[in-house]
Amino acid sequence: MIDEWIQKKAEEYWRTHVATHTHDVYMSRAAIHMYQMCGLFPIGDTVRNGGSNTVLVGDWWCHTDLATKKYWFGEPWGGPDTEIGRPVYVDNLQKKLAEMTRVANDPKASAVETFGTARSREQIVPIIDALINNNEGQFQVNVPNRGALEGIPDNVVVEVPAVVNLKGIQPLHVGALPPKIMLHCILPHWLDMERTLLSFKTRDRALLLWSALDSHQTRSYDQAVAVVEDLLAMDGNREMAEDFKFPPHWQTFKPHALG
Predict the structure, then answer these.
(1) What is the CA radius of gyration of the chain?
(2) Residue ranges of the chain with pLDDT lower than 50?
(3) What are the residues facing 204 on neighbouring strands?
(4) What is the maximum span of the chain, computed from C-alpha positions, in angstroms?
(5) pLDDT tens figures, 236-254
(6) Distance CA 209, CA 6 (A)
(7) How far is 22 from 151, CA to CA, in rounded Å?
(8) Which of 83, 100, 185, 215 is most buried (most C-beta within 10 Å)?
(9) How many Å apart are CA 31 and CA 44, to the nearest integer?
(10) How many Å apart are CA 184 and CA 51, to the nearest integer?
(11) Alpha helical stretches, state H, 27-144
């Protein structure tokens, strides 16, 4: 059915479709591109993450500039993670939070009248219901692997389907993913995670710099150094900036951007 849709309807859809919300990218060119590259169809946030070194490693060509993002992810925002899409999402989120706060603090307000009774697509409440009231269901969860996904260590957290009920969360055995997806997506994610964890364990600023240098958005060494320093200079990161140091030998090989 997907292949038939691509052959007969995709071009017309991409030509005429205008997203109604920032995350409306599920049948975009980017989604079809990932499907054809990897052999399995992406769903959920997998679609929007493609190209940011988080799903299809190396798929940076979907994210080079706003016009390119619009081509791959559609009009009018080019997906939720652009300079015009993200402000729209944040503004809508802030409005929702403000409304929720107002209702929560008003004893006379009715949550049902304000928000209705239709269940959203979010899983959080149904998972709680399954755990507490034994209304069993199958959900996507993030849990330590423990054999659910072959080829990944047991202590690495994976997102897999699970049966949830009063007995708890019981991940289903996913088995093995195709080698192409393991090599393009899963294993690179794992290594990136391990590098990130090592940076926090060792407080090695050079590992933070490596992450910036490894990004396809980086155009020069000095740019990468400046990005790391700017991020560490943000108010919420000041303790981190004080704690993370370059290795002792770094003083003998000081990058130009640091003076």
Answers:
(1) 22
(2) 50-57, 252-253, 257, 259
(3) 245
(4) 67
(5) 998 999 999 988 877 544 5
(6) 41
(7) 34
(8) 185
(9) 10
(10) 12
(11) 29-38, 45-49, 66-73, 85-104, 111-115, 124-133
Burial environment of residue 86 by CB neighbours within 10 A (0 to 12, 13 to 18, 19 or more): middle
Overall residue count recorded for the chain in this entry: 259
> DSSP string of 167-195?
TEEEE---BPPPHHHIIIIIHHHHHHHHH
Tokens of 110: 């009715």
pLDDT at position 53: 40
Closest to 192 in 3D by CA, of 57, 97, 25, 94:
57
Going by C-beta distance under 8 Å and a sequence separation of 6 or more, which residues neighbour residue 192? 53, 211
Classify 141 as helix, strand or coil. strand
The residues near 218 (Cβ < 8 Å, ≥ 6 apart) are 212, 224, 227
Tokens 């996904």 belong to residue: 149
Identify whether the C-beta of residue 65 lies closer than 8 Å to the C-beta of residue 26: no
CB 139 within 8 A of CB 164: yes
Q: Which among 67, 42, 63 is positioned nearest to 52, based on CA atoms? A: 63
Task: Please name every residue paired with 18 in a beta bridge, in sequence order, or none if there are none.
Answer: 75
Determine whether 93 is exposed, middle or buried from the number of CB atoms within 10 Å of its CB (0-12, 13-18, 19+): exposed
